[in-house]
Fold this sequence. Notes:
Radius of gyration: 25 Å
Strand order of the largest sheet: 5-4-17-16-15-6
Strand content: 15-25%
Shape: globular
Structural class: alpha/beta
Distance between the termini: 58 Å
Low-confidence stretches: none
Helix content: 25-40%
Number of strands: 29
Amino acid sequence: MRRMREVRRTACTRDCPDTCSMQVTVEDGRAVRLQGDPDDPVTRGFLCERTSRFLARHYSADRFTQPMVRRGGTLAPIGWDEALDLAAERLLRIRRESGPAAILHYRSGGSLGILKSAADFLFERFGPVTSKRGDICSGAGEAANLLDFGQTESSDFFDLLEAKLIVLWGKNPHTSGPHLLPVLNEAKRRGARVVLIDPIKTRAAALCHDFLQPRPGADAALAFAVARRLFEVGGADPDAARWSHGVAEFRALAFERSFDEWCRAADVPGDAARRLADAYATIRPSTILVGWGLARRRNGCGTVRVLDALGLVSGNVGVRGGGVSYTWARRRAFDLSFVEGTAPRTFPEPLLGREIRDARDPPIRAVWVTAANPVAMLPDSGVVRDALASREFVVVVDTHPTDTTDVAHLVLPCPTLLEDDDVLGAYGNNYLRRAQPAVAPPPGVRHEIAILRGLAERLGLAAEFPASVAEWQRRVLARVAPHGISADSLARGAQKSPFVPAVLFEGRNFPTDDGKARLVTAVPPPAPARDAEFPLLLLAISTPRSQSSQWAVDLGDAAAEVRVHPSAAAGFADGAPASLESRRGALRVTVRHDPAVRPDVAWMEKGGALRDGRCANVLVEAVLTDGGEGASYYDEPVRLVRR
């Protein structure tokens, strides 16, 4: 029999900055190959390792293909009508007895599909119910940009080719944004100098001209060393006060310590810091690409603000090839005005487990989880798990078993990225894309819009909730429709957002009250001091084989690995078993010696499952950043001990 073979276009919806356009080869209705779309100017025909391996996850035997309800402690199949009837009955009863604030709707970035916002709309109309605020990943950095520039955004993705100096400050493009790599290499071919600053010597060091390895959390000290030297050697723009408030005050902060004192605080050799400062003082235009992990510390907001200030006082903001880029505002192109933000109360996302557990007047009785695996991805994973397990009704919309579905009462199966129909913005470039079904979902799987519509009918909200995906897409694309962008045009390929300028803040005009930027006015608090009892700082970071809590490879029963400098291995041989402990908990690990890691760091892979003993977040205390209510994931002291 002759096989039917065709190539279909879609886009990756996973939590990644690139949001790649994909070509899916389909044979007889089954996806057999994934590759990047060569016509997408960012994707350029290749995919990351994680998504290249996605077919194994898509077709894995443990996938949810029908609703599941917990009976006798285990999940058992249930029909859709019965599942939605149960959900509606429980939600209506809890609202009647305790008010809508007793229900929490939690949505995170497990899918970047814009239509996931429809769940916010439904629960706002039903209640409004309790929701989260802040952002575990980007809250501190976005807050810094808003304070300094009045906006979180970046210049056109390809403006980087005009830069003559590119500083990757805490940014690991091989893992978090691999489609930046061709642009960096092209910029180098055009003569740009590239510098990496990171406490871990990642693969990016090989493509850079220089590499600095500061103490974790001490990046602000290094930035102030650079700032001081800028002022000393004439690298500060004499007109910076024309577009920035607080230049004199920022200069005074930089001169609170000598250059060498700042370098010692950062634990960076003075000659290396001087090379960086002199390059930044003399090479124009210069761009700082700020890594998202940089802000995931208690001083994260303040640290990003110091980097913003470097760009402002040097005159590298508002010019071609210059800037301080933290993120692109991926939702900016879309009309999300249907969500009004009228929650009766909100919980800081990093503290969600504690807030659910301790909430009173009323207590949280039900939780609906959209596009998230909070047990694995939030700090204090054990607290989050126990808080959810003790609620009377937890609903999770997901594709596969997770630590969060393990404590759910009802699981509703939704499409994977190969079956989804949605529209997307990216936070690593300025292109819009559409995910469209490359293959049909299993018969028992429903699109989230269909799930929410079925719930809306049972909650008496059908008249307010559009029934079709197409109608929702038209609604969210209303802002870009006058620019010729529609669901149909995005189905044919990526389109540049019309709202991202070629040069952000061109002419040094800022969307603030008076059009001027604002510089940081205080030195951020220092990084945590070395702890004699717990001498290592835990850094659980993204890797090419893990996408948040989704892994591209089957690790079997092997213990989690922790990578440490040989001098910091506490006597453990390479490959030895150990227990990695914090004041919050412990994990069984295998020790790996790695001279690329600083002696004060324990490096793990992010996103392991709690059920498999791989979840680093079980060790991490839930603490807010200094702005934006982000999570300070990278401040947890740990130690290696015998099991």
